[in-house]
Amino acid sequence: MDVTLLGTGAPAGLPRPHCPCAACATALGAHARAATALLVDGAVLLDLTPGAAFAAARAGTSLSGVRQVLLSHPHEGPAVEVPAGLPQPGRVPDGRELALLTGHRVRAVALDAPGTGYAVTGPGGERLLYLPPGGAPAGLEEDTDTARTYDMVVADVVGRPDALAKLRAVGAAGPATDVVAVHLDHDVPPGPELRRRLAAAGARAVPDGTTLAVGAYEDVPDVPRRTLVLGGARSGKSVEAERRLEAFPGVLYVATGGVRGGDSEWAARVAAHRERRPGSWRTAETCDLVPLLAEEGPPLLIDCLSLWLTDAMDSVGAWDDAEWAGGGERALRERVAELTAAVRASPRTVVAVSNEVGSGIVPATASGRRYRDELGRLNAGFAAECEQVLLVVAGQALVLRG
User: Fold this and answer.
1) What SS3 class is residue 352?
2) Residue-wise pLDDT tens digits, 292-319
3) What is the H or E stretch that residue 374 is in?
4) In what order do the strands lie in the sheet with 105-109?
5) Burial of 254 by CB count in 10 Å (0-12 exposed, 13-18 middle, 19+ buried)?
6) CA gyration radius for the chain?
7) Tens of pLDDT, residues 372-397
8) Which of 88, 225, 267, 290 has its CA 20 to 30 A from that of 189?
9) Taking CA 113 as the corner, what is the angle to CA 221 and CA 66, rounded to the nearest 5 degrees?
């Protein structure tokens, strides 16, 4: 079963008409995208968009063989003209299935937002799932059709990464599922930044007009199993770390900062972090990272190593010069070595956050300089065990490794 993506952009296209933003300004040439529409084996058209016939011609195909046109979401603005020879577009009620003379079966998938998803099974048994913009499947646990993994998922990965997480949670999307991002808007600059973000979710984007063979794709993006995200205060490092796991289910968020009763500013920070995180994530407030790293389980997001180091230095008396010289330094080195060894041996996907503090003002106190130095050593040791290391500056992630 072949799928031609006549368009891969948001309903308004990319660049958006008359939009002056930086993403739209750079979405030119190969980065420009028409509204998303899929042509399956030349027989089924999923979403009718303006200029569909011209888009098909540019892709080297034709709409003359289309036997079914299905709409996935409400369209704003003037009605789209139906090209001559095409059947009238329609939508299938949730849960209903169409059996076409071409040998395709199309089942309507219920969503948690206005619109309809479509699961298409080809004559050879290949399975494709197409989701509209802003939509995620609803009731997957009761849907017996999701017992089998889809060969390809075409969805709004940037706007609704949790949709992919839901599919992964029930096995509808597996390690070999080809995840193609569509409905691409101006939320993310096109080019390298878009590719980087999608690769972190195990997804990819393709240019308009690309034809893909469902079930034949083998080069699935390799999601790094261990990632360290560095950055200064309010650089966006925690947001970047959370973004890397929002397309995966059951994430355990490990908060190393504790509760700090009576500190209203800290409470506000914790609340802001919790509001950003998907509701399906769990939270553990602990600095005992080694046992968590040793266990099998869902991905870990550790935020952050800076506070873990503060706790570790407290425990060995590192702030007192005499205790530091009398064994505290050696004890801390052992704690750090134990942590980095656990990261190396961990079977889990791990994303950790840490502060980069060595490039600013030299601390005025000996204890402050000691903390700065030890955090630099910890970051270097942890980074050595990671497939990917990022430095976040002004909200922009720079890849240092991977």
Assistant:
1) strand
2) 999 999 999 999 999 999 999 999 999 9
3) helix 366-383
4) 97-99, 105-109, 117-121, 127-130, 152-155, 178-181
5) buried
6) 25
7) 999 999 999 999 999 999 999 999 99
8) 225
9) 70
pLDDT band for 360, please (50, 70, 90 cuts): confident
Q: Tell me how far apart the alpha carbons of residues 130 and 124 are, in angstroms, rounded to a whole number.
A: 18
Query: From start to end of 21-76, where are the E strands?
Result: 37-40, 44-46, 68-70
Unique residue bearing structure tokens 């530091």: 324
- The Cα 123–Cα 220 span in angstroms is 24
Distance, CA of 389 to CA of 402 (rounded, Å): 7
- Residues 319, 335: Cα–Cα separation, whole Å: 16
* Amino acid code (one letter) for 259: V
Q: Are strands 282-285 and 300-303 parallel, antiparallel or unpaired?
A: unpaired
Distance between CA 301 and CA 364 in Å, rounded?
32
Residue 213 bridge partners (DSSP): 2
User: How much is the average pLDDT of 30-43?
Assistant: 95
Decide: 68 and 106 in contact? Cβ < 8 Å. Answer: yes
**DSSP one-letter string for 271-298:** HHHHHHS-TT-EEEE-S-HHHHHHS--S
Q: What is the dihedral of CA 338, 343, 346, 348, to 10 degrees?
A: 140
- Angle between helices 366-383 and 329-345 in degrees, nearest 10: 20
Side-chain-side CA neighbours of residue 5 (13 Å): 27
Locate 158 and state its tokens. Answer: 């940037």
d(CA 369, CA 191): 40
CA distance 87 to 240: 45
Give the list of residues 6+ apart from residue 288 with CB closer than 8 angstroms, or none: none
Q: Catalytic residue at 273?
A: yes
Query: To which residue do tokens 């990464």 refer?
Result: 161
CA separation for the pair 149, 171 (Å, rounded): 6
Instruction: Please state the separation of Cα 217 from the chain's center in Å.
Output: 20
What Å distances lie between residue 71 and 111, 152, 359, CA to CA?
A: 14, 19, 54
Give the DSSP H/E element, type plus range, for residue 121: strand 117-121
The confidence score (pLDDT) of residue 265 equals 62
Spatial separation of the C-alpha atoms in residues 178 and 154, rounded to whole Å: 8
State how far the Cα of 188 lies from the Cα of 22, in Å rounded to an integer: 10
Question: 48 with 82: CB under 8 angstroms?
Answer: yes
- Which residues in 217-362 belong to E strands, given as ranges? 226-231, 252-255, 282-285, 300-303, 350-355
